[in-house]
Amino acid sequence: MGNWGNSANRSLQSCIRNSLALLLLPLPLGILAYNLDGNRWPNGEATFNVNIPGTAPSGVSWNTAFEDALAQWTDQTEFTFLLNNSTLDPCAGFSNSDDLDGFPDGEGDGLNGVAFGDDVCGNEFGSSVLAITLTIALPGNLGFALIDQTDIVFNNAFNWDVYTGPRRPEVDFRRVALHELGHVVGLDHEDGVSAIMAPSIGDIDVLQPDDIAGANALYGGPGDCEILDLSINSVIENSLSEGDCSVLELYGGGEDTSFVDTYRLNLEADTKLSIMMESSALDSVLLVTDDKLTGIDFDDDSAGKCDALIKGNFPAGEYLILANTYVEPFKCPGNTGSYKMSISDNALPILSKASSVSGATAKSIFHGGATADGGLTYKSSFSSSDVINVTASIQPDAAHVGKPATFYLVALLSTGQKFARTSGGKFVKINKLSSIPAHSQTSSLATEESFSFLKNLQGDALGVSNISASFFVGYSLDSAPGEVYFNGKPITVTIQ
Ligand SMILES: [Zn+2]
């Protein structure tokens, strides 16, 4: 993600000009040169309110011509214009500003409208300007401002008509509408190749390949960046480094040069997910989007200052998960390096880091939490009257499933005492962590193993208060008994 300020972006994209000077430079075929203006609609669509009274001398109504222009963008690009036939003043909520040729004062009305006008909401049209598009966009996370509202005003000072083919003295309303709608979509002027987005009006009267490529770069999904398939209940170890796609490349524009790895996740049913990205090298940033990169969820710091966590219910469908960081190192050591991502559908909170005694790595996911309301909420701080349950579960590395294994449950108290929970449900005091009595054994490790640390414990009933405990659950394969895999981040419980 970019390191961005917070001011709203108010831009005035005027100016398709009524000038004769239109220079087309010869460029090799296949070079597309569209320019993006740094703005993007959050979900690739916009509803335009279109009710322009009157008819062109050719007999085509202004509404029909404008709707034709909307339809060209919708039919030929990944952007979608929706039509509302209500009358809407594009200048509602705007008034003239002192700034000549500047953006009008006011915040508008949050809606997209179009009309002819003698001026731009009180401000002068610039010299030979045929129409102006006003855009208000709000700060976004990924190097784009997110467009909230656009309005188009056509200059009454010109003689308008609707026609196709070479340019005539009258101005063709439809091709100017096409151009202004290109600004609405988020395109800037293009004077290098044939484009409706040329800065001056000419003989082009329909969208050109460059215009279409520009809109599709913004709204067509993840370009040429590699997409890795992801499955639920897995752990990925990867890194962000030189050679990875940047957000700018993934989104086909913008200004965000931070690296990003892109994963595809297919959910066949509605699923409650926990997705965690953790790193000691970079500031983890997680995004969940739809298959067109429209944002659904975002997190930076929920799992700790360099770790990100997204939890929620996701409807069945295809998602993209973006593992990202900052353009400039921010809070954490760097902006490249390795990270670990775990994705789980367990109802318990996901715990950080599968650690092992010997430093061996395993793609196991540990969950656990403490609750006083039957699992509706998990937290770490309780009163002495709360009735507390602490549970944990292990989703072992796929390579471990089916093998004989031994489980260990350990509690470390703030007093310094250490306990192991045995199969009989007793907590046994232990002196050193190198000799922990086993909780239980299995001849075949399941894909998920669940454990209870505390069942209906009430501080008052036991005379316990002002105490904290950290709970760890671990397992070792019987083929390598010294290698214990456990949750690096404990379940913590404090009884006030
Ligand atoms: Zn323009």
User: In CATH terms, what is the architecture of the largest domain?
Assistant: 3-Layer(aba) Sandwich
- The CATH superfamily of the largest domain bears the name Collagenase (Catalytic Domain)
Given the structure, what is the number of helices?
5
Distance between the termini: 40 Å
Structure keywords:
about 500 residues; Collagenase (Catalytic Domain); binds zinc ion; mainly beta; Jelly Rolls; Immunoglobulin-like; 3 domains
Characterization of the model:
This protein is mostly beta strands and about 500 residues long. The chain has three domains: about 10-220, 3-Layer(aba) Sandwich (Collagenase (Catalytic Domain)), CATH 3.40.390; about 225-345, Sandwich (Jelly Rolls); about 355-495, Immunoglobulin-like, CATH 2.60.40.10. About 10% of the residues lie in helices and about 35% in strands. It contains five helices and 32 strands. Strands 21, 23, 25, 26, 27, 28, 30, 31 and 32 form a nine-stranded mixed β-sheet that branches. Strands 1, 3, 4, 5, 6, 7 and 8 form a seven-stranded mixed β-sheet that branches. A five-stranded mixed β-sheet has the order 12-14-19-16-17, with no helix packed on it. It is elongated and about 95 Å long. The two termini are about 40 Å apart. It binds zinc ion. Zinc ion (ZN) binds near residues 183 and 189.
In short:
By secondary structure, the chain is mostly beta strands.
Helices and strands in order:
Elements: E1 9-13, E2 35-36, E3 39-40, E4 45-49, H1 62-76, E5 80-84, E6 112-117, E7 131-139, E8 145-155, E9 160-161, E10 171-172, H2 173-185, E11 187-188, H3 209-219, E12 227-230, E13 234-240, H4 247-251, E14 260-267, E15 271-278, E16 285-290, E17 295-299, E18 308-314, E19 317-324, E20 337-344, E21 354-356, E22 365-371, E23 381-382, E24 387-395, E25 405-413, E26 418-421, E27 427-430, E28 440-442, E29 449-458, H5 459-462, E30 467-477, E31 485-487, E32 491-495
Helix pairs in contact: 1-2
The site of zinc ion (ZN) has 6 residues, from helix 2.
